[in-house]
Design the sequence.
């Protein structure tokens, strides 16, 4: 971030007391993430939104207009940074920032996955403008899941010129996670060119190295990928640390991995210099229940990480990795006055949040009332699908009494196995079978050939419903319907198309639950609290009907994620993820 000569000179004169501070923070105990100490008796002076003085007495900076903030009895810590996250599903990005602010979060590193998969380069520009309307600082990454893999997905890639334009924008930090690392190690030229552009521009590249080991893990790092948020086991953490990666440990909505990944760091006394705590996305229902980065830091402390080290992993470390440590990440001269006041260091209870020296949240409530941008009219109801889906759309012809088929069996909510099943055929068609927990799955094409539908089966979802659907998924973001009844599946599809997108549960012709995502089919403009309640109702509805997953919708949202094992589905058909190829539903022999 550029600073003018005048800005630099003002900070120098502010430190010397020649220009009086706008704010001083006194009292409290200061968490110094640079020295690893907790200091008493230190005062902080703020001028023009930045810290100009930290020391035993800021009396020389006080003038007639200087405001005082008495932090007596509080812990004064740097504002938290979520070093890898996503804020484009369910709520508009602005609402996520409103939700996170009272939890001490002052900065995010966010990949522009959802708007970019739907609207391309225009979606990236809309995202940049949307987050700029809010004081919480968002460092944006160009999405590299748009598409995950052009051989298997329908989302269009950004051109090399568009990537170069994006990387030249000072609001863009680098490239988002390279989910298709198989493409990278296989020498995909388009991917290599984009990585070369980023490295030439001095930008960082986030990784997603799930399943990579030894030579492959080294190959990804050699390409310039410098971080990974995918460790789920002790050996994943250790191998990535030893290979020079910045290791991001995740505790968010999609995955909660700290129980398995943090204890070995603590017990083996490994270096935490390259350890970053992240959420990888915290949905509104989870914010309502748990919080945001305050929750992640609290969990880390409870698992044995010393409080100052845990705070370093959510402040200084992500700032250093992201190349913004001269701007954020600590309480020191020259940095923005982004501060979290804590009532308790062990439990990380947030009292209030400051950004640029302004109190922007207090006692669990945001004080921000800036106006978000207005989304263009053509971003609403933009699925390019018509609400004339019939039950016949889900018929799968079968010429015999039974057939062997490939089935996506849920190992957990985000990993599948390929299972071969003997499935019954009734009146010439393959059918879902609730007695086997076998549901039909349909994925609609929204980006190119309108009306195209890929069909398959999923086992292990557990919910006994006629249909459940979503237009927000990872990362195709098109209409996906699963169900046991073709009639209910058609009804579910049509009501979501009419709404412009969303989530819905249907059974015996009755809509049990529904929430709308009219902007691109990916999010709503409604308040984040309202969306959190709606998502909670849908999860609860599916659990009550037998799903074993705490958040059943995520199991469906991950089905198009073609860079995780093993059998997936996109609008192009069934995908064998490890082989990067489309496979038929029917198995011969």
Sequence:
């Amino acid at each position: 971030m550029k600073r003018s000569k005048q800005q630099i000179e003002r900070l120098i004169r502010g430190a010397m007391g020649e220009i009086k501070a706008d704010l001083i923070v006194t009292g409290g105990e200061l968490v110094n993430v640079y020295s690893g100490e907790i200091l008493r008796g230190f005062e902080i002076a703020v001028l023009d939104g930045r810290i100009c003085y930290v020391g035993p007495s800021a009396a020389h900076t006080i003038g007639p207009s200087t405001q005082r903030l008495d932090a007596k009895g509080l812990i004064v810590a740097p504002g938290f940074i979520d070093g890898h996250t996503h804020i484009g599903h369910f709520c508009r990005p602005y609402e996520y920032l409103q939700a996170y602010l009272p939890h001490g979060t002052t900065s995010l590193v966010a990949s522009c996955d959802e708007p970019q998969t739907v609207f391309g380069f225009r979606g990236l520009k809309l995202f940049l403008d949307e987050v700029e309307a809010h004081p919480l600082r968002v460092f944006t990454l160009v999405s590299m899941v748009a598409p995950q893999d052009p051989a298997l997905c329908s989302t269009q890639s950004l051109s090399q010129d568009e990537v170069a334009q994006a990387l030249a924008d000072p609001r863009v930090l680098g490239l988002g996670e390279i989910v298709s690392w198989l493409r990278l190690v296989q020498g995909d030229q388009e991917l290599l060119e984009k990585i070369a552009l980023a490295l030439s521009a001095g930008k960082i590249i986030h990784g997603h190295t799930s399943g990579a080991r030894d030579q492959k893990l080294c190959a990804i790092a050699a390409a310039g990928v410098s971080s990974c948020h995918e460790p789920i086991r002790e050996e994943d953490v250790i191998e990535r640390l030893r290979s020079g990666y910045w290791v991001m440990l995740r505790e968010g909505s999609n995955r909660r991995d700290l129980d398995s990944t943090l204890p070995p760091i603590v017990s083996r006394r490994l270096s935490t210099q390259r350890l970053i705590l992240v959420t990888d996305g915290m949905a509104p229902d989870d914010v309502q229940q748990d919080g945001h980065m305050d929750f992640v830091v609290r969990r880390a402390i409870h698992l044995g990480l010393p409080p100052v080290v845990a705070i370093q992993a959510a402040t200084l470390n992500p700032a250093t990795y992201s190349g913004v440590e001269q701007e954020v990440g600590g309480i020191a001269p020259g940095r923005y006055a982004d501060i979290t006041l804590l009532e308790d260091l062990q439990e990380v209870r947030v009292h209030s949040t400051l950004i640029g020296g302004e109190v922007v949240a207090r006692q669990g409530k945001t004080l921000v009332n800036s106006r978000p941008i207005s989304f263009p009219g053509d971003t609403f109801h933009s699925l390019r699908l018509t609400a004339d889906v019939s039950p016949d759309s889900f018929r799968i012809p079968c010429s015999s009494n039974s057939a062997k088929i490939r089935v996506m069996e849920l190992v957990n909510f985000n990993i599948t196995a390929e299972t071969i099943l003997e499935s019954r055929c009734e009146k010439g068609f393959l059918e879902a079978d609730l007695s086997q927990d076998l549901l039909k799955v349909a994925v609609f094409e929204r980006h190119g050939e309108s009306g195209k539908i890929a069909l398959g089966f999923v086992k292990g979802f557990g919910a006994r419903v006629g249909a459940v659907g979503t237009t927000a998924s990872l990362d195709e973001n098109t209409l996906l319907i699963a169900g046991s009844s073709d009639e209910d599946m058609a009804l579910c599809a049509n009501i979501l198309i009419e709404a412009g997108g969303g989530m819905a549960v249907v059974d015996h012709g009755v809509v049990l639950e529904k929430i709308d995502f009219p902007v691109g089919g990916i999010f709503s403009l409604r308040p984040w609290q309202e969306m959190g309640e709606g998502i909670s109702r849908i999860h609860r509805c599916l659990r009550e009907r037998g799903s074993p997953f705490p958040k059943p919708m995520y199991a469906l949202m991950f089905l198009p994620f073609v860079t995780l094992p093993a059998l997936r589905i996109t609008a192009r058909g069934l995908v064998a993820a490890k082989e990067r190829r489309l496979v038929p539903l029917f198995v011969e022999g």
